[in-house]
């Protein structure tokens, strides 16, 4: 069985490769799909085949998928991510790939938000393709908050427009291990899983964890979505990007990230990484 990990030179992709190797998958059975192979020399040094794999350039996809059994499609970051995802899905179907595992966004079929809509559209493309799939709807990565915590070390506050909403974050390593499990085994085929940390925390609790990590008092300052968007524009973002980012906070306020039922920890066979630990380890790794 040959497993292709897309975006393998990224933060999550590298951790998935690590998790596959730790679970006994031979390096020779792993293909690392990357946009720029020259930046993945460390993966090649481990005996992993590195191939060019650019979602936006379909001509790079078919050669990389030759002989591949299963593909982890890590969601892209380009503005037109759905088109790129569609290119990968089409190429996987044409290549006869047995299974796709896709890193999606939480509750995208329950709560309407821009980021979720892009993932919902990708899930629809996968379903229409006829390729067997496992959909991993990952809650937030704890590492998403590293910039905010680093700023809080200087300002003493974390500013957000989420009200008293909760977030069930987990570390990238937690989600990477889940992706590896979904790739290797057969128990999760055909399933859509909402994955999140064991604890759904508030932003007051995020501020308390940040205080513990940075060694100074940190408070959560609640603002409106409009105030947040205006502040982002004042900081240099264009209006569209500012609205998109502020819209994520609005989705959080409406509960997009607040649910957790222990699925991720049961899948891992261990508790998920606690918030403060994830923040501390993330900052140390920078």
UniProtKB/TrEMBL annotation:
InterPro entries cross-referenced by the UniProt entry: NAD(P)-bd_dom, NAD(P)-bd_dom_sf, NmrA-type_oxidoreductase
Name this protein carries in UniProt: Predicted nucleoside-diphosphate-sugar epimerase
Domain of life per record: Bacteria
Organism name: Microbacterium testaceum (strain StLB037)
One Pfam match: NAD_binding_10
Domain (NAD(P)-binding): residue spans on this chain: 8-179
